[in-house]
Amino acid sequence: MLKKLILITTLLSSGLLAQTINYDFQEDNLTQWNTFGEWKISKEHILSMVERSKGSFNLCYTKSVAFLDGNVTVKFKANAGRIDQGGGIMWRVQDNDNYYVARFNPLEDNFRFYLVHDGIRSELSSADVKLTKGWHSMSIEQKGASFKGYLDGKLYLEYQEKRLNKT
Fold first, then answer.
1. Within a domain: 60
2. Largest Cα–Cα distance of the chain, in whole Å?
């Protein structure tokens, strides 16, 4: 599975003006990132999962950005995987066992929201979506307890959920 993460986060809840933070992986450095599975940054500045995690979900996230209301966008491309493929976004991450996740899986042709609470993943919402092979964008828009999921700029998922209401 090969994913290029270009993370664009707009912070709105802190009382500051909107702020955009980009992670374009220009440096081969994941020191600010928590990872499960083996991840690497290629010379093309692509963050790739090269070995799946044993005993947990494949995770790569940073605690250096926290927000209640805002947007997150990633670019992803699925290259391999027999059980799962695709890419996703984690947000409102409390720790490795508590977070929201949106993911697209081209093997199942679906886009889903999940809540991972105390290490147990529960499906919140799902849409049947067929995308062509290649690069795609995924965006999450979070405002209060409401979040929306977009693929390539098109809205597919909307959900209300407030169990993880901290940054």
1. yes
2. 45
Q: What is the pLDDT of residues 43-102, one digit of tens each?
A: 554 555 555 555 555 555 566 666 678 788 888 777 666 666 677 888 887 877 888 889
Write the CATH number for 39: 2.60.120.560
Q: Which two tokens stand for residue 61?
A: 């996230």
Is a pLDDT exceeding 80 seen at residue 113?
yes
Q: How many domains does the chain have?
A: 1
> Which pTM value belongs to this model?
0.69
Cα 153-142-83 angle, rounded to 5 deg: 65
Share of the chain above pLDDT 90, in %: 23
In a domain, 166, yes or no: no
Answer whether residue 165 is part of any domain: no
Tokens representing residue 147 in the block: 């979040």
Range of the domain at 13: 7-160
